[in-house]
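FYI - complex with sodium ion, inputs then prediction.
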Amino acid sequence: MVKRGAFIVFEGLDRSGKSTQVARLVESLNQSGEKAVGCRFPDRTTTTGKMIDSYLAQKSELDDHAIHLLFSANRWERSQAILADLEAGTTVVCDRYAFSGIAFSAVKGLSYTWCQSPDIGLPLPDLVLFLELAPAAAALRGGFGNERYETSEVQIAVKDMFERIGSDVGSERWKVLDAGRDVDAVEKDVRGRVEELLKKVEGPVGKLWA
Ligand code: T5A
Ligand code: NA
């Protein structure tokens, strides 16, 4: 039987460096002979993804519950492909996941447990790397754009919500990394934690919030 791949998720505020680190990790794993692929949520290429993209670009309005469910559906659409990769021995490195889903919806006033429910049963990440960066430092990395949620108020509230989510996930699985260091230092820290994980990944992929 092939050893299954690891499911690794990066979370963090906007501009904390998630996309940069996902790309670097996938490349370095592949270079060292580990099969790895990247993925990201929202996946703006699918039908639900196009609706989400229009909402984030503030070209359309949607009820807060409706957009929350679309983000979740966007993950479910991809979930079988993620499981198939993991079972085939490929490590999946994902840029945002259900934790962003809760954080951004709950700060709008939706119930925390309601926000969790549509994601119950999704593939459970083996490791969540939370890139921690002060909102003020994130804002310095090229000013806020025009997308929804790109304001200091939202980012500060989201950071607090992520702390609650991290404690619910538990410190075994949820690791907070200082994302204020230079890109190479963060990458080295990430690589060290992933090497630890790859030694111990075993058993079936878990189910989120189950
Ligand atoms: N959302 C998402 C929901 O509401 N519900 C959901 O369920 C989900 C999944 C999506 C938006 O949707 C919300 C959350 C978001 O508001 P997105 O497409 O993921 O947004 O885009 P962002 O996360 O906003 O992506 P960013 O590109 O802003 O942030 P990243 O990926 O964290 O940062 P990255 O790597 O692109 O880097 C940003 C800049 O900083 C530099 C990079 O070169 C780049 O210029 N940088 C560093 N500079 C200094 N030091 C470092 N260590 C650096 N690392 C990167
Ligand atoms: Na990004």
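The chain has one domain: 7-198. The longest strand covers residues 7-12.
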